[in-house]
Amino acid sequence: MNRTKITSRLKYLVIFGWLFFIIAPYLWMFITSLKPPAEIYTKTINYWPNNPSIESYLSLLKTTPFIRYFLNSLLVAVGTTVIALIASVTAAFVFSRLPFRGSRGLLSGMLVSQMVPAILLAIPLFLIFNKLSFVNSIVKLILAHSTYAIPFATWTMTGFINEIPRSIDEAAAIDGASPLQIFWHVLLPLIIPGVVGVATYIFIFSWKEFLYALTLTSRTVDRTLPIGLHTFMGEYTIRWDLLTSAGVITVIPVILIFVLGQKYLIAGLTAGSTKG
Known about the structure:
- With 276 residues, this protein is mainly alpha-helical.
- Helices cover 76% and strands 0% of the residues.
- α3 crosses α13 and α4 runs parallel beside α7.
- The relative contact order is 0.14.
């Protein structure tokens, strides 16, 4: 066996080991969710359920407000995606095609703002929203998530628009198109992959966000999935049956969105990382 074959097999062995390391926790969560409670709380570890059932899922839906948590998370994630996407795409067009004095510094400041830990913004946001007592918790979360997602999304979309030759804009301008028409009819169709990629990033970020959801919500009816799942972990006991079944359902939308938009997400992040 020559050196090339050994290197190739070692490479695949490392790749499969890495994939197993990533997938194993999700696989274990799924297997545990199919175990009856009597098989979960045992002294010995059962790697596979003797009597697979969906009892945990039925208990989750019937005895907990999981559906409310799910709908709240969906509403917050979709609302954040719409608001942050509109703001970031339009801002990126201005930074890329209509630069003004200080625009590069402002754009760099947006990127630097992502280095600030989210926990440092939680208290100021809480105090601001506390003054806006007429705003309900769902709207608060949408606005809070948007403020954190917009800077990075703007930076990414600016890099994506910068890759489009300016000659296309100039040709449209010669034909009498206004800046708004150039953006809507010329640039926007060309940056759809970037838009989908950024939207995927924003949705996943909002879907899994925990800190702001914990800080800005106090009622059970307003909780999102990360907070709802945390309630299954008590001081002395952990409801593994509810936690694993809820985890399986929670991760499904993220997997579907990532599978559908992964090539656009990679393209958008790659374009946004270029300098120009």
